TrEMBL record:
Pfam families recorded: Flavodoxin_1, ODP
InterPro entries: Flavodoxin/NO_synth, Flavodoxin_CS, Flavoprotein-like_sf, Metallo-B-lactamas, ODP_dom, RibonucZ/Hydroxyglut_hydro, Rubredoxin-O_OxRdtase
Gene3D superfamilies per record: 3.40.50.360, Ribonuclease Z/Hydroxyacylglutathione hydrolase-like
Protein name: Flavodoxin-like domain-containing protein
Domain Flavodoxin-like: 251-389
GO function term, MF aspect, one: metal ion binding
């Protein structure tokens, strides 16, 4: 397998996971890549590795450039095993290599692997390592995505290797965003933020603020395609918006249904938003994965969740979505709970509890006994239109 030169003497030597279809619950329809970068200088540096099942890909790409036993430094920007999984294999080739990581990175790596023989160099923000013609410096980015996360920056190359942040789960032969479809890459970057970094948007904002002070012409994340030229500004601008939780006048209606009544209610709610000229989407939880719904929710002002009552609670699909939402915690939304019921109607209370936990402003709670008629549905639309103002 070949290495891709991304800058003179700096190579992408990662792995392409064409068949990855899910990543801890996140649907990755486009696969992913685990990006590792090899820097050839007086010291040979490997920045991050790959998941262990594709270690051979990493090694074979490195071998097209250099004997892996010549690696002097392995930078571990993040302990999660999609990036650290092949460090033990590299250490077998090059047992005297130094592992450079954050303080939490050292702790994490020692918990993941038998690292008793590994030589560590622990770095803090602003620390610098000279590797010959180049210097590498580090920015600790706690919780972007784990407590150990950090970015590696090369001033001479204006190159940032920030690991997860700015990544996309996207397998492709191309290495740069400008070689692929920009709209698709941005959609995947948005999905990545919504499903991975959203709960840490405050920390992400701090990281982006530091990153924006750097002189940059390339951001090479650890998943997906590399941002260069004008695309660097575009992804930073997108993160400014996502980190700041900027929403637009848009509603996402998420529901499941048993006999169609809750679906009809979803349509009535849709009509109210439509009448008010508010962008609106309906997502049936049997048809759309929760991780894709999160991409739509990231900039939606209104979140509407509907479930009929089943066994005195909400439907499992809705519960799954709400628990996912609760973990990812998008803030400051206006919410509507809705659903039909036969006798108890407890699903509505369960949905409301999650809205309360998330401190959402509840615009309405709409419940209907058994099957709404045409006039009931029309009234529902009219009532909601009035509430929308
Ligand atoms: Fe790509 Fe947090 O690992």
């Amino acid at each position: 397998m070949r290495a891709f030169e991304i800058k003179k003497g700096i190579y992408w030597v990662g792995a392409i996971d064409w068949e990855l279809s899910e990543f801890h619950g996140y649907l990755t329809q486009r696969g992913s890549t685990y990006n590792a970068y090899l820097i050839i200088d007086e010291k040979i540096v490997l920045v991050d590795t790959v998941k262990s099942h594709v270690t051979d890909d990493l090694i074979s790409r490195i071998k097209t450039i250099i004997d892996p036993s010549k690696i002097d430094i392995i930078i571990s920007n993040h302990t999660e095993m999609d990036h650290s999984g092949s460090i033990p294999a590299i250490m077998k080739y090059s047992p005297n290599a130094t592992v450079v990581c954050s303080p939490m990175g050292e702790k994490g790596l020692k918990k993941h692997f038998d690292a008793t023989q590994w030589k560590f160099k622990v770095v803090e923000t602003g620390d610098k390592i000279n590797i010959g013609k180049r210097d590498l410096s580090f920015i600790l980015m706690q919780m972007v995505h784990w407590p150990d996360s950090m970015a590696t920056y090369c001033l001479q190359e204006k190159l940032l290797m920030p690991n997860d942040i700015f990544g996309q789960h996207m397998a492709s032969y191309e290495r740069f965003v400008d070689e692929n479809r920009f709209d698709v890459v941005m959609e995947e970057a948005k999905k990545y933020f919504a499903n991975i970094l959203l709960p840490y948007s405050r920390q992400s904002l701090d990281a982006v603020t530091q990153i924006e002070k750097l002189s940059l012409d390339m951001i090479a994340p650890s998943h997906g395609l590399i941002w260069r030229g004008d695309d660097v500004k575009k992804i930073l601008k997108a993160y400014d918006k996502w980190d700041a939780n900027i929403t637009v006048n848009k509603a996402v209606i998420v529901y499941d249904t048993m006999w169609g009544s809750t679906k009809e209610m979803a349509t009535s709610i849709y009509k109210a938003f439509e009448a008010k000229n508010i962008n609106v989407e309906i997502k049936n939880l049997r048809k759309t994965h929760i991780s894709d719904i999160m991409t739509d929710i990231i900039d939606a002002k209104y979140i509407c969740v509907g479930s009929p009552t089943l066994n005195n609670t909400m439907m499992p699909t809705v519960a799954s979505f709400l628990y996912y939402l609760k973990g990812l915690r998008p803030q400051n939304r206006i919410a509507i709970a809705f659903g039909s019921y036969g006798w108890g109607g407890q699903s509505l209370n369960e949905i409301e509890k999650v809205f309360e936990f998330l401190k959402y402003q509840t615009l309405d709670t709409i419940k209907f006994e058994y099957v709404p008629r045409k006039a009931d549905l029309e009234k529902m639309t009219e009532d909601l239109k009035n509430k929308l103002g």
